[in-house]
């Protein structure tokens, strides 16, 4: 049983406090929470992850400004998600029937009418269903279901091109518009590569534990079926080779970008960013492909887009150091961004999706997307 929830800012200050039982918990508990509770894991941290997912879905993100702008809705959500310290309703699709998501119109009406509550006076049908994440009888004319594998590649490439970290964080997203009470089974060709798997409450745990298949009755609409990690990958799709030579108050910069491990699909929206050292007075940088801009706070952004077939993109130029500085004493870290449509870089492959308890044969669609997460190249 949970007794309280605190939402903290990045500075560690309590932005929002929700006491869930009659016993009031002092804020000083936040000091040792991460050292003790997170290390132990358990249902409390699982529920907090669920709260974070719901708030992010409702507010379009999760940061200090969004929380402060939507205090009322956050309190209303916590009221519905917990009952005297025990989890109650945690499915976003059902919560949205109970509490209207924030928008410009609702904010204007609350100011004009003086009504601040967003809670519906009608209880959703799903609260009386045997599967509380799904409506009793959803009516859908499309009769279709889509499964998306969305992955983020986290990598650290050290000096000399040595790969010190490479792993994927992935999510299995489902958009279901099936009538009645369908029963779905999703299987993979290589489920053994998955680590740290987290499931939506609709997933039956025993079939996964015994056969590593996902068996579930889906909510109606969009939802995250599961998340996972694939660790210790051996390759990255692209290489970034920075070379910086500093002497006599200047620093020569050369950066070469190319494809290292061809994913079989086009690499799009390729960008390279790095922070110019504080001792740099001016920069003259040019690229043979794409555009180079020095943004606020001395951040250099190189937008490449797609890698051309006839040449490797390169950036070169000179950094002039401030007076009195002979050479750079620290070199920047390069942050890489990209997107690959149609590829799950982890190698995870969907084997089949079986659908039962439906009157007619539904349409099934599968897509994959890989994008850069925390992709760093150190110089």
Write a short abstract of this structure.
By secondary structure, the chain is α+β, with helices and mostly antiparallel strands. The chain has 3 domains: 4-128, Beta-Lactamase (2-Layer Sandwich); 144-234 and 345-378, Immunoglobulin-like (Sandwich), CATH 2.60.40.1170; 238-341, Mu homology domain, subdomain B (Immunoglobulin-like). Helix content is 18%, strand content 42%.
If you had to describe this structure to a student in words, what would you say it looks like?
This protein is α+β, with helices and mostly antiparallel strands. The protein has three domains: 4-128, Beta-Lactamase; 144-234 and 345-378, Mu homology domain, subdomain B (Immunoglobulin-like, Sandwich), CATH 2.60.40.1170; 238-341, Immunoglobulin-like, CATH 2.60.40. It has helices at 30-40, 43-59, 64-69, 71-81, 92-98, 104-113, 205-211, and strands spanning 4-8, 14-19, 82-83, 86-87, 144-157, 163-177, 183-188, 195-199, 203-204, 214-216, 221-230, 238-247, 250-259, 267-275, 280-287, 291-295, 299-305, 314-321, 333-341, 350-356, 363-378. The strands form five sheets. The chain has a nine-stranded mixed sheet, with no helix packed on it. A four-stranded antiparallel sheet has the order 9-10-7-20. A four-stranded antiparallel sheet has the order 12-13-18-15, with no helix packed on it. The radius of gyration is 25 Å and the shape is globular. The two termini are 49 Å apart. The model has no long low-confidence stretch (mean pLDDT 86). Residues 142-378 form the MHD domain. One of its GO terms (biological process) is intracellular protein transport. Belongs to the adaptor complexes medium subunit family. This is MHD domain-containing protein. Keywords: Membrane, Protein transport, Transport.
């Amino acid at each position: 049983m949970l007794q309280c929830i605190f939402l903290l800012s990045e500075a560690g200050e309590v932005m929002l406090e929700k006491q869930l039982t009659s016993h009031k918990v002092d804020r000083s508990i936040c000091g040792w929470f991460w050292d003790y509770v997170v290390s132990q894991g358990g249902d409390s941290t699982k529920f907090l992850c669920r709260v974070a997912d719901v708030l992010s879905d409702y507010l379009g993100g999760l940061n200090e400004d969004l929380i402060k702008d939507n205090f009322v809705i956050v309190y209303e959500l916590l009221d519905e998600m917990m009952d005297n310290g025990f989890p109650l309703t945690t499915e976003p699709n059902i919560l949205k029937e109970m509490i209207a998501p924030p928008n410009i119109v609702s904010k204007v009406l609350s100011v004009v009418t003086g009504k601040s509550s967003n809670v519906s006076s009608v209880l959703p049908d799903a609260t009386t269903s045997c599967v509380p994440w799904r409506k009793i009888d959803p009516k859908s004319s499309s009769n279709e279901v889509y499964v998306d594998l969305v992955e983020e590649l986290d990598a650290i490439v050290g000096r000399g091109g040595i790969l010190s970290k490479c792993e994927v964080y992935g999510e299995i997203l489902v958009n279901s518009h099936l009538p009645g009470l369908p029963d779905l089974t999703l299987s993979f060709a290589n489920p053994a590569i998955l680590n740290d798997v987290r499931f939506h409450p609709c997933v039956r745990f025993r079939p996964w534990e015994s056969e590593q298949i996902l068996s579930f009755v889906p909510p109606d609409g969009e939802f995250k079926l599961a998340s996972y990690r694939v660790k210790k990958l051996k390759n990255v799709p692209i290489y970034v080779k920075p070379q910086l030579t500093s002497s006599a108050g200047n620093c020569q910069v050369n950066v070469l970008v190319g494809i290292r491990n061809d994913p079989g699909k086009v690499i799009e929206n390729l960008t390279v960013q790095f922070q110019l050292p504080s001792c740099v007075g001016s920069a003259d940088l040019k690229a043979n492909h794409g555009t180079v801009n020095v943004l606020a706070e001395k951040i250099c952004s190189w937008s490449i887009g797609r890698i051309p077939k006839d040449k490797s993109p390169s950036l070169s130029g000179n950094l002039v150091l401030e007076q009195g500085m002979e050479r750079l004493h620290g070199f920047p870290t390069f942050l890489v961004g990209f997107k690959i449509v149609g590829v799950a870089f982890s190698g995870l492959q969907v084997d089949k999706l079986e659908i039962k308890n439906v009157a007619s044969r539904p349409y099934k669609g599968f897509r994959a997307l890989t994008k850069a997460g925390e992709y760093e190249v150190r110089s």
